[in-house]
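Design job #97: recover the sequence.
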């Protein structure tokens, strides 16, 4: 039985964990934790490859859905990029993320998406209607999130009455907006994690910058 099925009935304020230890990602199972961020340093080879990918394939979008089999991660890349120097190092890292996700959640069905982005994909703060999502931004600004003390959840979605986040009252403290570092591994609990209804991690896509006009974003979802 998946560990997702066990959560005690308690009242709590969701909190986030930021760490340099990948083992701490398992703290996502704590009832009061709805976000775990494990920082890590990108290797020079992967960094070179990602920069080349964003120049060569600026509008890349790939999706893989797989079960217990090993997915063909090379299909994430156009053929002209698969033989590039350092492509293998990046593919190995993707396989590592998949293995980590599977080990944490014991899922038999996983969805992977890889996108290059030149603008904010989901520019408004929101929650995901999934059990849990893993996010890794390989290059560019990282996903932004709000700690619980800075959120008026009643203003999410239709509660904003069409007003921008900055004026709707959703953001109680704009200085509290946090950003997930590039290359970090983030786990965000959604509304479909049992016992987490009304407590999903509140986050949004960032805009790009002149220094980083494109992002490379990989996500993994339980299906």
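Job complete. Output follows.
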């Amino acid at each position: 039985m998946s560990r997702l099925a066990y959560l005690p009935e308690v009242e709590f304020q969701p909190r986030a964990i930021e760490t340099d230890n990948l083992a701490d990602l398992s703290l996502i199972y704590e009832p009061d934790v709805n976000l775990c961020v494990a920082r890590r340093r990108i290797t020079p080879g992967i960094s070179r490859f990602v920069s080349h990918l964003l120049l060569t394939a600026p509008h890349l979008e790939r999706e893989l859905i797989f079960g217990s089999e090993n997915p063909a991660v090379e299909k994430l890349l156009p053929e002209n990029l698969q033989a590039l120097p350092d492509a293998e190092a990046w593919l190995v890292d993707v396989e590592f993320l998949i293995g980590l996700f599977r080990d944490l959640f014991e899922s038999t069905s996983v969805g992977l998406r890889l996108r290059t982005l030149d603008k904010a994909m989901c520019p408004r703060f929101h929650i995901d209607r999934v059990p849990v999502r893993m996010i890794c931004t390989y290059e560019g600004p990282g996903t932004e999130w709000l700690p619980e003390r800075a959120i008026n959840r009643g203003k999410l979605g239709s509660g904003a009455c069409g007003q921008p986040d900055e004026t709707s009252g959703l953001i109680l403290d704009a200085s509290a907006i946090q950003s997930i570092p590039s290359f970090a591994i983030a786990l965000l609990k959604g509304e479909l994690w049992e016992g987490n209804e009304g407590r999903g991690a509140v986050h949004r896509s960032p805009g790009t910058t002149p220094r980083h006009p494109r992002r490379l974003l990989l996500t993994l979802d339980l299906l």
